[in-house]
């Protein structure tokens, strides 16, 4: 007897729902055995309330209870690591006003754009820039900190969640970002796990090559791979390969939402999972943001959250 098409569709929906329920149950069961304590990482500091990657944002993140403060690293022309997200300075500083002619012009999406690249400026020149006014008048005159300065500010109060930004780009310009990072950590006696129990250090990157290079340079600190797409690294085999040189996976929240089993696969490979980026969005209030974080921590079973809003983290 031939079944009607509507029955076939209904049966398919029932099977799909059952599969989803089974997956969520498995996630919940796996999470029961994990510690209650989850990790709060302040994304570029408390960047919802103060200009990102600045000392005021880092101080506020600590005040709001961050376990780790995330710092993005760039390299100046004279080889100094500074805390900044972008390769160029114009988005978050007044560089166009102070150095109007020091741009590079390139074509993007059919139009010419001007960029004031970090690697074209010395640390002394960058220290003159206003990195706070773009965010609000109350932060006028805030400076871009060197990584050394930010370590001094955070040390003993929270951990360092460090990201090597565009290491291949800097490699093309003659810099070895990984060596610079390790040199600063050694100089601060933070290059070994547990060196300062009050200041744990983790290094993350979108570049698997950068993480492996850190290992080749003798780095013994925990490393995490940032991922945003369903690529080879999120497969069972890819995660096993990652576990050979890294300790963590840092996927975007959309990646986990589309593939909840990723958390299970990563845990089975011995990797921690720290998810990004949680922030207030259109139509979302503070309560909804906390609820969203809690869903990822309890239902999906992630080990940590990276957020612009550390004060909304569910404890």
For the sheet with most strands, the description reads: 8 strands, parallel, barrel
In CATH, the topology of the domain at 26-73 and 156-312 is named TIM Barrel
Instruction: State the separation between the terminal residues, measured CA to CA.
Output: 57 Å
Unreliable runs, pLDDT <50, ≥5 residues?
1-36
User: Helix and strand string, N-terminal first?
Assistant: HEHEEHEEHHEHHEHEHEHHEHE
User: Largest beta sheet: what is the strand line-up?
Assistant: 1-2-6-7-8-9-10-11
The number of E-state strands comes to 11
The CATH class label of the domain at 26-73 and 156-312 is Alpha Beta
Given the structure, what is the number of helices?
Answer: 12
Assigned CATH superfamily of the domain at 26-73 and 156-312: Phosphatidylinositol (PI) phosphodiesterase
Q: Average the pLDDT over all residues and give the rounded result.
A: 91
The secondary structure category is alpha/beta
Strand content: 15-25%
User: What's the helical proportion of residues?
Assistant: 25-40%
Envelope shape? globular
Annotated CATH architecture of the domain at 26-73 and 156-312 = Alpha-Beta Barrel
Radius of gyration, in angstroms, nearest whole number: 22 Å
Descriptive overview:
The chain is an alpha/beta fold and 315 residues long. It has a domain at 26-73 and 156-312: Alpha-Beta Barrel (TIM Barrel). Helices cover 36% and strands 18% of the residues. The protein contains twelve helices and eleven strands. It has helices at residues 5-32, 55-63, 95-98, 123-126, 147-154, 167-172, 177-187, 208-216, 236-242, 253-258, 261-268, 286-299; strands at 39-42, 68-75, 81-83, 104-108, 111-115, 159-164, 201-205, 223-227, 248-251, 272-278, 304-307. The strands form two sheets. An eight-stranded parallel beta barrel has the order 1-2-6-7-8-9-10-11, surrounded by six helices. It has a two-stranded antiparallel ribbon with strand order 4-5. Strand 4 and strand 5 form a beta hairpin. The longest helix is centred in the N-terminal third of the chain and has 28 residues, at 5-32. The chain starts with a helix and ends in an 8-residue tail after the last strand.
């Amino acid at each position: 007897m031939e079944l009607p098409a509507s029955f076939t569709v209904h049966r398919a929906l029932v099977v799909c729902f059952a599969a989803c329920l089974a997956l969520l149950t498995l996630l919940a069961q796996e999470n029961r055995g994990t510690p209650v304590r989850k990790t709060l990482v302040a994304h570029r500091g408390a960047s919802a309330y103060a200009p990102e990657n600045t000392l005021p944002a880092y101080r506020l993140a600590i005040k709001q209870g961050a376990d780790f403060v995330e710092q993005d690293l760039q390299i100046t022309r004279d080889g100094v690591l500074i805390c900044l997200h972008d390769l160029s300075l114009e988005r978050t500083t007044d560089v166009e006003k102070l150095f109007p002619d020091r741009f590079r012009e390139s074509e993007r999406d059919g139009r010419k754009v001007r960029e004031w690249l970090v690697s074209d400026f010395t640390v002394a020149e960058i220290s003159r820039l206003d990195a706070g006014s773009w965010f609000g008048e109350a932060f006028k005159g805030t400076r871009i900190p060197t990584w050394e300065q930010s370590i001094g500010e955070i040390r003993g109060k929270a951990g360092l969640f460090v990201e090597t930004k565009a290491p291949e780009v800097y490699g093309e310009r003659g810099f070895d970002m990984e060596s610079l990072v390790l040199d600063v950590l050694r100089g601060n006696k933070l290059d070994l796990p547990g060196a300062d129990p009050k200041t744990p250090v983790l290094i993350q990157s979108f570049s698997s090559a950068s993480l492996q290079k850190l290992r080749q340079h003798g780095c013994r600190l925990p490393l995490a791979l940032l991922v945003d797409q369903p690529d080879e690294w999120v497969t069972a085999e890819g995660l096993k390969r990652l576990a050979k040189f890294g300790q963590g996976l840092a996927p975007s929240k959309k990646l986990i939402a589309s593939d909840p089993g990723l958390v299970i696969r990563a845990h089975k490979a011995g990797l921690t999972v720290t998810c990004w980026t949680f922030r207030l969005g259109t139509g979302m209030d503070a309560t909804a943001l906390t609820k969203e974080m809690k869903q990822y921590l309890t239902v999906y079973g992630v080990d940590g959250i990276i957020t612009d809003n550390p004060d909304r983290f569910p404890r």
